[in-house]
Amino acid sequence: MTERYPVADAEELSEDGSRVIAEIKGQEIAVFRHRGEYYALANYCVHQAGPLCEGALSGDIDTGDDGWDWVYDDEEKYIVCPWHGWMFDITTGRSPKDERYAVPTYDVEVEDGTVYAVR
Amino acid sequence: MLETTLYVDEADRVDGVGDLDRVVDTGAQVQETPEALLEQMDESSGARRVVSLAELRHDMVYAGPSSYPLYEYKRTGGGDEPVATDDVTDRIGGAELADRAAAVGVDAGVVNPTLNLGLSEVNNDRFAVELASAYNDWLLSELDDQPDLAGNAVVAPQHPDRAAEEIDRLADEDDIVGVQLPASGLLPPPGHRQYAPLYEAAETHDLPVAMKSTVGNKSFGQQYWWAQSFAEDFVYQHAFVQMRNLTSVLFEGVPERYDIEFVVQGAGVGFVPFLTYRLDDHYLELGYEIPALTKLPSAYLSESFYWSTYPLVQPGDETPYVAAMVDTVGPENVMFASDLPHGVTDVPETVVDRLAPALDADEMAAVMGGNAERVYDL
Amino acid sequence: MARSVERDRLTSLEEVDVVVDADAHAQASWDDIRAHLDDGHERFERFFETSPAPGTEMNLYHSPTPTYLYEDMQGGEEETAGLYDDAKLAETSAVAERIGVDAGVVNPTLILNLNFVRERDYAVAIMQGYNDWLVSELAEYDNLVGNLVVAPHDPRRSAEEVERLADEDDIAGVQLLGTALLPPAGHTCYEPIYEAAAANDLPVSMHTSGAGMKPFPEQSFWAETYAEDHVTQHPFAHMVNVSSLLLGGVPERFPGLTFVFQEAGIGYVPYLLRRLDTAYHELGPEVPALPDPPSEYVADSFYWCTQPLGHTAETPRHLAWLVELVGPGNVMFAADAPHPDFDTPEELFDRVRAHFGAEAVEAMMGKNAMDVYDIA
């Protein structure tokens, strides 16, 4: 049975790249705004339990078409754990380095200027 | 603790090497002599002229004095009892090797060179290219009458385009089942973009790439300096070469770009779990500078890298270390190798005895032959 | 085969008496070190003031790409201090507390590259300044002790430094840095250091450095990235130094001396020890200094720090096997706090608790370090 919990006023998340971290029943959940959408994930790194969502948002370096050049994709949709640098895509919760690593994600709803996390 | 969590039920084990249908040795070596190589070279070749005047001496053709005479000296003359009866300069061709393999219970083998394991340390690129071709031609002539032996064609990393041409030239030969890229002395390391033609050719012809290490390297790693004894060098040289090369191959994305199977030879299996964890940890923590990979290094390793058993450790180790390492790496990625005909050799019986408590019969069959038959398409 | 369930298994870290980080780090800055310099180092001072980039001009350290970029990614609301910042031991202590470490043995950060310093007198100045800074800092923390650093460039003055500081309560050992140590640690030139350490009953710790090891063993060339360099640098330095110490006979000449190896984990150790024994048996005439196989000396007096343990092992059992093959009595938990590749105590504890008895686990998590470093 899921429930929704108010985590922020929409005004607090009015800009892309902004975030709030709220505690819901003893668990910290972060809500990010990215390209006009909201994404929620646990503030918990599956590596060594670090405070994942207190890290920086970043793009990622990929290889170019030749498989060798480095290309920076500046879409800042990766949260970088401040403890060991593990990265997770905030829109999916998955590691771009290996999809088997993922942090829990939650649905987000917005109603009457309030942002809710659903868990 | 190790025994209770590592060992399989006795009913699932093999009793001994006699239970195996076929033993394939992926690490036997022929011994090519300088004379044999020079005979294979074209009379009109300028490289042949210079190399023949130098009699293929290590201090003139390779990066410096060879470790081989030293190695054999230490093993034969250092102690009271000689452990090897051959001189490394003796010619050991296909027939001789086949006899010795049969005598220790090896049914089939994929052979590597001896002298040319030092090919990457040849200073002059023209010499290297000619030495590779000469060895390969000699090898083919030696394997002609040996139905149970096949070989890796050696390539000169100094000139990747010519290496690719050499692979193209030999790929259709029935007796050539893989490529040997000599691991020691590879500069730059094998993940570098310059090797693209070589890997493309191996991929095109569906040939695995074997990389065998040796000792006493000067042009790469440099650990040789400051080693006070051969023993010191011997302890870490092989693992250094393999760890350094594999880190380069993985982090520069070679297994992502090419569909190639790699066979890693000379350093044993014990360093592999450690290296695997280190590669994974670095990829996850420093992934921004390793964009060439799309999954964990360990995933590529288990998909397409194979590890030779040789060398096991000397008798006297009372722990099931070797079995634990093979089990950790995964028996599906391990291949038996003897290092025949060299001084200290792991014969099938020894390897089977060491691994028997920890592997079931299928796993043992894979290690002792099945994996090699599949990878080398024997 | 089912695992036997024994009654003395621990289930929670809370049951562990003391967790010791056998490889904690201090974040001294150049200013901290210079502020503690004795007279006699004026030339070093002058160099420092006139050089446009004294740190880099002075030493040979070089990394292919920048190190641990995320460490500077100060996201969110928390401003964290980076490496080399003037955080003193406060950050070390805070991180230790946060991850559940009770006590720590402190090693340097900036000075991990001491062996890269080219000029002998500068190295000696840095040794003295850092050590006095360390002693003054440690006085403020009841749960931290430290290793004094020695400069292998000058073994005689290093031995004097050991004598000078050995009686300080907070000095628990000697740090002989492992990376770029030329010649390797078994060379006779280091005997004054080993003599001083043995005479004062201090263990010798060897910590490695992550990248850019141009002086030795040179793999730094051709590494295209920091990651590529860092994978191999740490274990390579230890493998060279351990081989050199053992085959050179140091543990035979200094029977009471203990060695601790830090920052490369333990996974290479079973492999290394068996290769050493193999070399000993096959090439014995070359190793006249040792009457017994290397592994016997190692069991008596070599200790191995666990960090980084390795996170992606297929099953915890595989890491427990490595611990078993190294010998639980010779393993020390290390967190590496507060460095960016640190391990929490759970990293080790969760892998070993089901496979070893309570006493062995307690030993690995802290008791071995307390014994070796004589931590009360």
Description:
- In chain A, 0% of the residues lie in helices and 50% in strands.
- Chain A is globular, with a radius of gyration of 15 Å.
- Chain A is mainly β and 119 residues long.
- In chain A, a hairpin with a 2-residue loop joins strand 3 and strand 4.
- The model of chain A has no long low-confidence stretch (mean pLDDT 94).
- Chain A has strands at 4-9, 19-24, 27-34, 37-42, 56-63, 70-80, 87-89, 105-111, 114-118.
- Chain B has a single domain (2-375), classed as Alpha-Beta Barrel (TIM Barrel), CATH 3.20.20.
- Chain B has an eight-stranded parallel sheet with strand order 1-2-3-4-5-6-7-8.
- In chain B, helix 2 (34-40) crosses helix 7, helix 7 runs parallel beside helix 8 (160-170) and helix 8 runs parallel beside helix 9.
- Chain B has helices spanning 2-6, 34-40, 46-53, 58-61, 68-77, 94-103, 125-143, 160-170, 196-204, 230-251, 254-257, 272-285, 297-304, 321-329, 348-355, 361-375, and strands at 24-29, 108-112, 149-154, 176-180, 209-212, 262-265, 305-308, 334-335.
- By secondary structure, chain B is an alpha/beta fold.
- Chain C is of the alpha/beta class.
- Chain C is globular.
- Chain C starts with 19 loop residues before the first strand and ends with a helix.
- Chains B and C meet through helix 1, helix 10, helix 12 and helix 14 of B and helix 8, helix 10 and helix 12 of C.
Q: CATH topology of chain A, what is it called?
A: Rieske Iron-sulfur Protein
Shape of chain B: globular
Distance between the termini of chain A: 8 Å
The string of secondary-structure elements of chain A, in order, is: EEEEEEEEE
CATH domain topology of chain B: TIM Barrel
Query: What structural class do you assign from the helix and strand content of chain A?
Result: mainly beta
Helical percent range of chain A?
Answer: under 10%
First and last CA, distance of chain B: 39 Å
Oligomer: heterotrimer
**Shape category of chain A:** globular
Mean pLDDT of chain A: 94
The top level CATH class name of chain A: Mainly Beta
